[in-house]
Amino acid sequence: MISPSTSVYKLEMICDDPLYEGLALSLDLPSRLGQDSLVDDITPGVNISPETRLWSQPNLAPGWQPPRCDGAVRPENDYPCINLFLPAFSKRAYDALSDLLLPNGELLPLVTHAGSFFFFNVTTIVDALDLEASKCKFWCDPPTTAVNVYHFEFLPDRLKGLSIFRILELPSFTFVTETFVERVKAAGLQGFCFRKVSPIPPDEHWRKNELILR
């Protein structure tokens, strides 16, 4: 069990309010990494090997050409996401959070009708989940990526200094620590949904621990 000072949250966009609509990236845009599309390039864990838990997210900044993103996103939305789950930040959020974001990934410009937004390519991937103490369902044995994690327990020493990251078992999830949450609140940013995943009691479902900043 980790202390409250190292609380971990799943970072999400707000999905139940039309004022916080997200961005959409077409599946027809060409890949720059030899994959099926640009969406594959920016989606973590697309080519994970079934024989290993290990994977990494490639750097995309070299040769990045800002793609056009559609969607009814509003300038006031600081965290609209792309295709519902890929992190995207407003210029206001970029300015407020860049010292937390840039050590852990790449902020890559997008073209939108609503002003300056940036895709955040998370490149900090940590093997921080305590598999023995957590409650997980995996696709196969030995475990690679997880179908779901019902209860999260993290290894405290592997969370030191982290603010935003992914874990090996859940490539599509973006996690943040209390440091990130407090910065977002202090900056008055909007459009963020944080779900506390740890530490919480084993019989409490993390999806119910919702903190929304509108």
Describe this structure in words.
The structure is a single chain. This protein has 214 residues and is an alpha+beta fold. It has one domain. The chain contains 3 helices and 11 strands; from the N terminus they run βαβαβββββββαββ. It has helices at residues 38-42, 91-101, 178-186, and strands at residues 8-13, 88-90, 105-110, 117-122, 125-126, 135-138, 146-151, 164-167, 170-177, 192-198, 210-213. The strands form 3 sheets. Strands 5-8-9-1-10-11 form a 6-stranded mixed beta sheet. A hairpin with a 2-residue loop joins strand 8 (164-167) and strand 9 (170-177).
Q: Which terms would index this structure?
A:
Imm11, single chain, six-stranded mixed beta sheet, about 210 residues, globular
